[in-house]
Specification:
By secondary structure, the protein is of the alpha/beta class. The chain has 2 domains: 2-149, ATPase, nucleotide binding domain (Nucleotidyltransferase, domain 5), CATH 3.30.420.40; 197-379, ATPase, nucleotide binding domain (Nucleotidyltransferase, domain 5, 2-Layer Sandwich), CATH 3.30.420. 38% of the residues lie in helices and 21% in strands. An 8-stranded mixed sheet has the order 5-4-3-2-1-6-8-7, with helices on both faces. Strands 11-10-9-12-13 form a 5-stranded mixed sheet, sandwiched between helices. The protein is globular. The chain starts with a strand and ends in an 8-residue tail after the last helix.
Length: 398
């Protein structure tokens, strides 16, 4: 029986997971899957490393099943169908580490309490991240669990990149710019050091474009600036999130429109972005297919905002050597990439349309001053790497 670690990314209605076996070269991907439709119509799909389906199960009348109940079923399935792998630890994506947590940590009661206190800063993510940890503690109390923080990659940025122009006392209470998608950005930085060391050592913008979206400016593989701030609402327009907004709009909604804080939270997190502007969908694929002119307007606004924010990050970097597209839209949507790159032509970036259409690893033209790459992200692998790094070595060492 071989040892294995499991990476878990728990959201409000889904749980993504991946199993990695231990190898001398690092964790080796063995299986991955997703529990989706939690709260409505749960479905579990898992595939092995070659893409073969291991399980495809739906729960009839399963709307009342909780994360905990479904994790119990997932563990039971894994025990029956993956008996050759002994799970030695589980690593979790935890969206918010606050000011205190800048590296992966073994989970204990004190850490869970501290992370609970950060839930108001990431209400769509943090409670579900922690619920998965607690569910597994109940199922397997002795199994080590590791929290890997999405904010950690941005932790050491300069004060100018983390402060709001608010009274110091509020900054000292934790009201500052944190940044998110750190596990994705860390994976891209590590991968780029292997495939393009010269670019990895330069001035780089990474565009993590998915239902949640952000940009990160890196110099020599370190975060210099990023578009998300105090919460994962800030920065780019997203699937259902508005991105940056004049705070006066929020005051107006409170004082003139009579909206409650809860109504505004729902508006900003769940009813805005691509969905709000288009009135059609939060899914970019559906918007491309739609003939509604509002869908086209939403797509145009998405790329305009992305290019605008990228221009600001060029200033933070003092120039630009390359851009990397990643995550669901960034990896798979040539139309969005082309539109953003065209808006950034002033940097000297030109793309090859054929390479871009094929989602090639390099989509810039040979004569482009700026290199443009497409690199699939792998947050689950990054979680596995961190989990193994935190576990005590045999014999009590580290």
């Amino acid at each position: 029986m071989s040892g294995a670690v499991v990476s878990i990314n728990a959201g409000s209605s889904s749980i993504k997971f991946a199993l990695f076996t231990l190898d001398t070269d690092g964790p080796r991907h063995a299986a991955a899957g997703k529990l989706e439709g939690i709260g409505t119509a749960p479905r579990l799909v898992a595939r092995d490393a070659d893409g073969a389906v291991l399980v495809d199960r739906s729960w009839n009348n399963g709307a009342g099943l909780t994360h905990e109940a479904l994790l119990h079923d997932l563990f039971a399935w894994a025990g029956d169908h993956l008996p050759e792998h002994e799970i030695i630890a589980i690593g979790h994506r935890v969206v918010h580490g606050g000011m205190a947590f800048a590296r992966p940590l073994l989970v204990d009661d004190a850490l869970l309490t501290a992370l609970d206190a950060l839930s108001p800063l990431a209400p769509l993510h943090q409670p579900h991240n922690l619920a998965a940890i607690r569910a597994i503690r109940a199922l397997a109390p002795a199994l080590p669990q590791v929290a890997c923080f999405d904010t950690a990659f941005h932790h050491d940025r300069a004060d100018s990149a983390t402060r709001f122009a608010l009274p110091r006392a509020l900054h000292d209470k934790g009201i500052r710019r944190y940044g998110f998608h750190g596990l994705s950005y860390e994976y891209i930085a590590r991968t780029l050091r292997e495939i393009d060391p010269e670019l990895a050592g330069g001035r780089l913008i990474v565009a993590h474009l998915g239902n949640g979206a952000s940009l990160c400016a890196m110099r020599e593989g370190k975060s210099v600036d990023t578009t998300m701030g105090f919460t994962a609402l800030d920065g780019l327009m997203m699937g259902t999130r508005c991105g940056n907004i004049d705070p006066g709009v929020l005051l107006h909604l409170l004082t003139q429109e009579g909206m409650s804080s809860g109504e505004i939270e729902t508006l900003l997190y769940q009813q805005s972005g691509l969905l709000g502007v288009s009135g059609v969908s939060s899914d970019m694929r559906a918007l491309h297919k739609s003939e509604d002119p509002h869908a086209a307007e939403a797509i145009d606004l998405f790329t305009w905002r992305a290019a605008r924010e990228a221009g600001a990050l060029v200033s933070s970097l003092g120039g630009l050597d390359g851009i990397v597209f990643t995550a669901g839209i960034g990896e798979n949507d040539p139309i969005i990439r082309a539109s953003i790159c065209e808006r950034l032509a002033w940097t000297g970036l030109t793309i090859d349309r054929d390479l871009n259409a094929r989602n090639a690893p390099v989509i810039s033209r040979p004569d482009s001053r700026i290199i443009a790459r497409v690199i699939p992200t792998d947050e689950e692998r990054m979680i596995a790497v961190h989990t193994l790094g935190v576990l005590p070595a045999p014999g009590g060492g580290r």
